[in-house]
């Protein structure tokens, strides 16, 4: 199944609060997509509308050409992992997995049980009594074992410790390779998860800032390091995101493409050129107005 999600001029208003403003984009193909945005930028609202839990105030959202809102057939193809405590609070963990098994047509019970072992999930504990990390692990297991063609993970791994998070990344990638599907992960931990993404969507204060393949995005910025004099003359006409150091060792992060001409100039000025980590680029994209132009 080749998944397609269309956002058509989506606006979401909660009373006086506008969470999303005219967001338009088409996501297609089996991919791991990062949904990035600062706190309150509108990520959860967007994910909830993709699952059909909310309706846009204006505009429309289509998953496989259909409206997800009140569409129970389509809902079985879309797994949205957010708050396991809310969804399964009174059930024991083992029962939550059994409920999930009946909800998802592609549920893999053996895989769910192998994951429960790997994450050391206590099966006889009520979901509402799970530790934060274990609740996150349950969410990760539900998201992975559902094998839903569209899987939405809203900061699923946020309560996990580093060991569990890396286990989750490893499982996510391995299972995605075995069963390609569209996985959308909203996150703040870009440095850790960034390597998994093929494509990123950045939402800033309710508007779509960019939607691009990661490879293409990373080509849009770089850092140069050298003496202050050389770095300053190299970056004179460029959009500098931030600088570090000075004197004999200064580094400047630049938003713009590294052309052949610039590379020759950097060589001439004995500057070291590096690509910018996705996390740095994200922080600066969402904090500077000029970059949006
Ligand atoms: N039910 C609601 N009623 C009123 N305002 C809401 C509601 N849900 C979200 N909002 C507001 O809409 C905006 C976007 O919220 P949303 O939860 O979608 O953002 P987010 O990017 O997921 O945030 P975070 O990263 O902090 O979880 C915020 O200003 C939030 O306060």
TrEMBL record:
PROSITE patterns, alphabetized: ABC_TRANSPORTER_2
Keyword Cytoplasm assigned: no
SUPFAM superfamilies hit by this protein: P-loop containing nucleoside triphosphate hydrolases (SSF52540)
Keyword entries, A-Z: ATP-binding, Nucleotide-binding
One Pfam entry name: ABC_tran
Entries under Gene3D superfamilies matching the protein: P-loop containing nucleotide triphosphate hydrolases
InterPro entries (UniProt xref): ABC_transporter-like_ATP-bd, P-loop_NTPase
Domain ABC transporter: 5-230
GO molecular function, one term: ATP hydrolysis activity
Keyword ATP-binding: yes
Protein name as it appears in the record: ABC-2 type transport system ATP-binding protein
């Amino acid at each position: 199944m080749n998944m397609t999600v269309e956002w058509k001029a989506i606006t979401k208003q909660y009373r006086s609060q506008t969470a999303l403003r005219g967001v338009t984009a088409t996501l297609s193909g089996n991919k791991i997509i990062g949904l990035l945005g600062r706190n309150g930028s509108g990520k959860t609202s967007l994910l909830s509308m993709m699952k059909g839990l909310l309706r846009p105030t204006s505009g429309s959202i289509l998953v496989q050409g259909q409206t997800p809102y009140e569409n129970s057939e389509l809902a079985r193809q879309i797994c949205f992992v957010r708050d396991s405590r809310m969804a399964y609070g009174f059930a024991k963990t083992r029962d939550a997995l059994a409920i999930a098994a009946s909800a998802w047509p592609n549920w893999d019970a053996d895989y769910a049980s192998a994951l429960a072992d790997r994450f050391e999930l206590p099966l006889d504990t009520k979901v509402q009594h799970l530790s934060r990390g274990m609740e996150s692990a349950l969410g990760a297991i539900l998201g992975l074992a559902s094998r839903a063609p569209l899987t939405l993970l809203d900061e699923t791994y946020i309560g996990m410790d580093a060991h569990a998070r890396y286990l989750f990344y490893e499982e996510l990638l391995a299972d995605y390779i075995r069963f390609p599907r569209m996985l959308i992960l909203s996150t703040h931990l870009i440095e850790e998860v960034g390597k998994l993404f093929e494509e990123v969507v950045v939402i800033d204060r309710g508007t779509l800032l960019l939607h691009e393949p990661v490879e293409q995005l990373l080509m849009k910025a770089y850092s140069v390091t050298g003496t202050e004099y050389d770095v300053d003359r190299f970056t004179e006409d460029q959009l500098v995101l931030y600088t570090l150091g000075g004197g004999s060792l200064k580094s400047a992060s630049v938003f713009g493409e590294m052309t052949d001409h610039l590379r020759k100039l950097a060589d001439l000025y004995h500057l070291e050129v590096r690509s910018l980590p996705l996390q740095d680029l994200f922080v600066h994209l969402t904090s500077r107005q000029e970059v949006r132009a």
